[in-house]
Amino acid sequence: MKIFFAIFLAALLAGRAQAQAPAAASAEQTLAYIHAGWDKLTRSATECAALADVKVHGSPVLYVPADAPIPAEAAAAAERCHAQVLALPRRIEKLGDVMPQELPEPGLLYLPNPYVVPGGRFNEMYGWDSFFILLGLEADHHEALAKDIVDNFLYEVEHYGSVLNANRTYYLTRAQPPFLTSMILAVYEDRVSFPATPAGRAEADAWLEHAYAVAEKDYSTWTRPEHRAGATGLARYYDYGSGPVPEMADDDTYYADVIRGLVEHATPAGNAFLVKGSEHPDAAEAARLKITSCDVRASVVCLRAWYGGYRLTADFYKGDRAMRESGFDPSDRFGPYSGATHHYAPVCLNSLLDRYERDLAHMAHLLGKPQDARRWDRLANARAAAMQRYLWRPSEGVFADYDFVHAKPSDYAYISSLYPLWAGVATREQANQMEAKLNLFERPGGLSMSNHDSGLQWDEPYGWAPTNWIAVAGLEALGFHADAARIAEHFDATVDEGFAADGTIREKYNVVQGSAKVAVSAGYTENAIGFGWTNAVYLKCKQIMGETAAIPAAPASPGH
Q1: With the C-alpha atoms ordered 145, 150, 156, 159, is the resulting torsion angle positive or negative?
Q2: DSSP E strand stretches across 55-136
Q3: How far, in Å, CA of 90 to CA of 99, rounded?
Q4: Which residues lie closer than 8 Å to 47 by C-beta, 6 or more apart?
Q5: Pairing of strands 310-312, 274-276
Q6: d(CA 174, CA 94)
Q7: Which of 295, 319, 345 is the last residue of a domain?
Q8: What percentage of residues in the chain have a pLDDT greater than 90?
Q9: Pairing of strands 61-64, 108-109
Q10: Confidence check: pLDDT of 274 > 50
Q11: Tens digits of per-residue pLDDT, 45-78?
Q12: CA distances from 362 to 206, 268, 476 (A)
């Protein structure tokens, strides 16, 4: 009887343990989620779901270009969604031509085609997210939707002045990392994007001709005086607005948290971002703060940016805005909370621009424009030479950001140092040295953003899909196949583990633990669900691992 009871109890306990154990990670389940996820993340500017924006308060508004008639479908959507349709006050040629504060309400900027949003609070078409999303759409056989996204960006450049951070009015002052030419070529070179007929080939060539002209205009964003990194011949991130960003209205503790962090962990660099100020300034102090900090009378976000007798300097806000253009918001890469971003020529941006110039040269060759091609090659060669002069650190075997204000390289190890592999800037010898330094970032669950745990989401221990893919693709292109496959496998395994734990895919992962568990101290403390670029990079990593059979042909979305 005792033996029977012991066996019964052991079986009961084993059953309970099995019931309580987390589900095993399964690539098949993750893939099924991704295949079904594109439709859930697809929006149109004329849908009520697209008009919703948790980042700001107010009634929904859809803005259309000043130089274009209000589309009938936009007017119909406004009535259906209880929203306004307003024309922008004037034609936009470049970033900053219309400032967000000029408009009566923040709102969505009209785009003519469907697009894919990242997920969570990010309910609009983002600049650099969309490059990775597009690669995933093509890998998952949604080529028509991929082309729609590129056509939207061409419309955005033509009517809103540049590829924007995203299609909301509060982003009319800044761009995002420049991937437009890579997106154009990804669509043009995909044989499924256009009909496989002589007429289809002619359509593709005409499309490329138009896209080339628009990309040339977008490129001019990065050669404006404000985007130049001093006399280096390189570019920097820069936002044409001032003060705190308006989209932080839903996170009104962020800037106060930054001040608290700077006060509690005082450093000379952090102290330089602080200015004395009261919580409720009178008229005289408000006038002073408008110059030294931000306009407390015009911005509720500015008014709330206070802690312990301190406010943030106007220069910090310039750096904060530039940081958001970089996409890496926030980390300690460019000083505390990256408040000095605009003081640096970054490896990532200049790698992307070198690739952009070489892409334009390639397009010019395809279009029979040899003189244009030579011009773009000269520009790319000049940028590559400047990168070798200012960004390459031969004694350490790495590319590093350059502080052009203080004329010194950064010693902050950051994953963007691997971008020259993807862009084709690194020489073979440099690539060998960089590959030998992968341990700076490689963790059990993929590549970490840095080797510095600041508590911020774009630092250790967090790894993100876009930077993992840039590194993997760069390593693969230069023949480091084993490294590329290993990192791809580890990152996808982390995504699988996260999916097994909660049935979702996230925007970022803890690559030290190999899980989706994050604990961010300031900034976006949540881990958004969706998630567009993670879905895409997961599929692309499967291809690097030689598991293309795991990506079956998925049915096209309705209307595509």
Answers
A1: negative
A2: 61-64, 84-87, 108-109, 115-116
A3: 11
A4: 77, 81
A5: antiparallel
A6: 10
A7: 345
A8: 88
A9: parallel
A10: yes
A11: 999 999 999 998 888 999 999 988 899 999 998 8
A12: 16, 47, 21
User: Cα–Cα distance between 218 and 180 in angstroms, integer?
Assistant: 8
Question: Residue 325 sits in which domain range?
Answer: 246-345
Question: Domain count of the chain?
Answer: 2
Give the whole-angstrom CA distance, residue 70 versus residue 60. Answer: 16
Does the pLDDT at position 143 exceed 70? Answer: yes
Q: Which amino acid is at 322?
A: A
For 99-138, write each residue's pLDDT tens digit: 999 999 999 999 999 999 999 999 999 999 999 999 999 9
Distances (CA, A) of 415 to 37, 348, 424, 465: 28, 9, 16, 12
Q: What share of the chain is helix, strand, coil (3-state, %, to 5)?
A: 50, 10, 40
* Residue 78 maps to a domain: no
The answer as to whether 292 is a domain residue is: yes
Could you give the residue numbers annotated as active site? 329, 507
Task: State the Cα–Cα distance between residues 15 and 9, nearest whole angstrom.
Answer: 10
What is the chain's mean pLDDT, rounded?
Answer: 93
CA distance 535 to 147: 18
Beta-strand pair 310-312/344-345: unpaired
Which secondary-structure segment (H or E) carries 146? Answer: helix 143-160
**E strand or H helix that includes residue 5:** helix 2-20
- Cα separation, 463 vs 466, in Å, equals 9
Residue type, 380: A
Does residue 329 sit within a domain? yes
User: Would you say residue 19 has pLDDT above 90?
Assistant: no
Is residue 422 a contact partner of residue 469, using CB atoms and an 8 Å limit?
Answer: no
Phi, psi of 537 (to 5 degrees): -70, -35
